[in-house]
Write a structure and sequence with these properties.
- The protein has two domains: 216 residues, Uridine Diphospho-n-acetylenolpyruvylglucosamine Reductase, domain 3; 152 residues, FAD-linked oxidase, cap domain/gating helix (Vanillyl-alcohol Oxidase, Chain A, domain 3).
- Helices cover 28% and strands 24% of the residues.
- It has twelve helices and 18 strands.
- It is globular, with a radius of gyration of 21 Å.
- By secondary structure, the protein is an alpha+beta fold.
- The relative contact order is 0.13.
Length: 378
């Protein structure tokens, strides 16, 4: 990321920017800094999180972009945080292996950024990034380097700090290296999409798939202000299993997608999310609650995950957020800075809030790491 792009973080210009070329240099750079420290990836998610409060030093991880170890036979890989998801997938492809992630921020996002924001996409049925991490190397605010987890799938039991660091927005530690378990590429994948006249028809098909024995790796409903109402499903499994599931889709005007169309559809879905509007709220319910959520709050547009119950709602008015949060947990996924200054990104309360505040004080007593971006900004 360029120094010019760094200047745009919530209107705050960092006092300086450093580009460490190793984890050791990263630790030294942080140890030498006495003010606030802001970790940076490729800048794909700068509108996520509470507003940044200060930035004496920005630390770019762009030069920490190497595979440190790859063991195809063990289905594990260990990568530095500045490597992009697209680069990782390209390295895995010759061995027909994959890291099954598809965050909305796309393949140009760094793996450290995806982990620190817990970025997710349409492949909800195969889990989020938390489910594929087996270990981490991190740098603390005093420059200390520590490890959690390990480099093999089976590890000694204990506190899984990697899950704690995932989604913490670089406010507890700076993630410098991540160890992943991998999976073999699906023997066959196939996708289908159906368009409907009304949102109610699309919701009915989404519900029919949820109640069926089908097990898609992705099942998404999209509705938008243009009147677009569509349901897309993707299957990945043994060829015979995929064929059986396609044959048993509920009755609808399905169009099967060829390989090139499938890739284009995935890109189109990411674009749909990016173009939902200025205010996007990630509402977390049960799969059985998707229809009632959408009908009650009537968002301008929505992307709903049939397997998880998560609904991304595009809102015309930020004042709707309070009413939604009164019934469901909801994260402010994207909003202009003036909205994020008024409305908390995570909106956690009670015991959860106290625990998160205590963690921040434990890991970063002076509040110097990415100040304000996470719970300390609420």
């Amino acid at each position: 990321m360029s120094a010019e792009a760094v200047a745009a973080i919530d209107g705050i210009t960092p006092g300086r920017i450093v580009f460490p070329e190793s984890v050791a240099q990263l630790g030294e750079a942080i140890a030498d800094e006495k003010g606030s420290v802001v970790p940076l990836g490729s800048g794909t998610q700068l509108q996520f999180g509470n507003p940044l409060r200060s930035a004496d030093c920005a630390v770019s991880l762009s030069k920490l972009s190497r595979i440190t170890t790859y063991n195809p036979a063990e289905l594990t890989i260990h990568v530095e945080a500045g490597m992009t998801l697209g680069e990782i997938q390209s390295a895995l492809a010759p061995n027909k292996q994959a890291l099954p992630l598809d965050p909305w921020c796309g393949p140009d996002a760094t793996i450290g950024g995806i982990a620190s924001t817990n970025a997710q996409g349409s492949l909800r049925a195969v889990g989020s990034i938390r489910d594929w991490i087996i270990g981490m190397k991190v740098v603390h605010i005093d420059g200390r380097i520590s490890k959690t987890g390990g480099r093999v799938v089976k590890n000694v039991t204990g506190y899984d700090l990697a899950k704690l660091y995932t989604g913490s927005l670089g406010s507890l530690v700076i993630i410098s290296e991540i160890s992943f378990k991998l999976r073999a590429q699906f023997a066959r994948t196939a996708s289908a999409i159906a368009h409907f006249e009304t949102r109610r028809e699309a919701l009915a098909i989404l519900e029919a798939i949820r109640k069926s024995p089908l097990q898609p790796i992705s099942c998404v409903m999209v509705c938008g202000p243009s009147g677009k109402n569509a349901v897309g499903v993707r299957f990945g499994e043994h060829p015979q299993a995929v064929a059986w599931q396609i044959a048993h889709l509920p009755a609808a005007p399905w169009k099967m997608l060829e390989a090139e169309e499938d890739a284009a559809a995935a890109d189109s879905l990411r674009d749909e999310h990016l173009q939902m509007g200025k205010i996007v709220l990630r509402v977390i319910g049960l799969p059985s609650q998707i229809a009632s959520m959408i009908e009650e709050f009537n968002p301008v547009g929505a992307i709903a995950h049939g397997a998880s119950g998560i609904v991304h709602m595009a809102l015309s008015d930020a004042e709707q957020i309070a009413a939604i949060r009164a019934k469901y947990p909801a994260i402010l996924e994207r909003a202009p800075i003036e909205v994020r200054r008024r409305i908390a990104t995570f909106g956690v309360q009670g015991t959860e809030r106290r625990l998160m505040q205590e963690l921040k004080r434990t890991f970063d007593p002076a509040g110097r790491l990415n100040p304000g971006r996470h719970i300390d900004g609420e």
